[in-house]
Amino acid sequence: MARLIRNKQGIPCTLLTRFRNSPSSLLTHTYANTSKRSLQTLAYEEIQANPNKPTTHTALILHGLLGSARNWRSFSRNLASSLSNSPSSEWRMVAVDLRNHGKSAEIEGFDPPHDMVNAAKDLGNLINSKSWGSPDVVIGHSMGGKVALQFAQSCGNGDYGENVKLPKQLWVLDSVPGEVSTENSDGEVEKVLQTLQTLPSTIPSRKWLVNHMLELGFSKSLSEWIGTNLKKSGREETWAFNLDGAVQMFHSYREMSYWPLLEHPPKGLEIAIVRAERSDRWDADVISWLERLASQEGDGCAGKTSVHVLPNSGHWVHVDNPKGLLEIVTAKLKSLMS
């Protein structure tokens, strides 16, 4: 799951954020330019540091389970700003709401199965509907990391057509690339999803939900975060995500394995794995395997895999150590500008 965090750092006045959603739910914002978009493409937020400059590079940013694009708004702004000091380069950050999440949950046309393959296909459809061209970089956290891996795999197979090409860099943030066994999990996510499925579709109030979660034994921080995933529906509250669809996506996330992609990345692609130092999602065998893949010297006929450890961070990398994450990613992205 991805945490919903308020932007405590403020909004740099030089940054422009464009919100793109379904025609029936356009957002308004002090820094926003809005336009209509067709159904069956994902909702997203488009962020640039210098809106008057033509963009030269594009990065897609994907959230985790039960998250949304706004979870990554602050990081996206800071990343765009950190890359804006080059006179010849201008980055466009596109923070996406995956199917069943955020504003995309309000859009009709995302048919089942709700799995990693179709979640990645949604990205291909979005890119084909825009004039961006293919993204240079795709960054995915947790479940979004596996969507990113599936996107790269499908791009390599030519599944999205000639207009959607393989990215140059793929960032997988604290997401184990292989199958996720329940034996290697504390079961918290499963317990949360099971609990949410027992609740009515409309909730009396956010306070009621938080108290209910506390009574069931969940922590205060987790209970309050669950409460932030509500939206007003008349006098009551309802979920800001499609719970049944999100549960299906979680099962697909656990079952899919992308080890073959990491072992043989397509030529021209670097897959960068970021492991949070204090994350509980990695066992010793997986860490050793990743380090072995990263130490291999390519022959020029294939891409490469790199591994980065983010210090002083648990799973919520963009919250626990956003500065450290920004430094790791920025250094790599700047290599694409030379």
Automatic annotation (TrEMBL):
Signal peptide: none annotated. Residues 60-326 form the AB hydrolase-1 domain. One of its GO terms (molecular function) is hydrolase activity. InterPro entries: AB_hydrolase_1, AB_hydrolase_fold, Serine_prot/Carboxylest_S33. Keywords: Hydrolase. Belongs to the peptidase S33 family. PANTHER family: 2-SUCCINYL-6-HYDROXY-2,4-CYCLOHEXADIENE-1-CARBOXYLATE SYNTHASE, AB HYDROLASE-1 DOMAIN-CONTAINING PROTEIN. This is AB hydrolase-1 domain-containing protein. It comes from Hibiscus trionum. The lineage of its organism: Eukaryota, Viridiplantae, Streptophyta, Embryophyta, Tracheophyta.
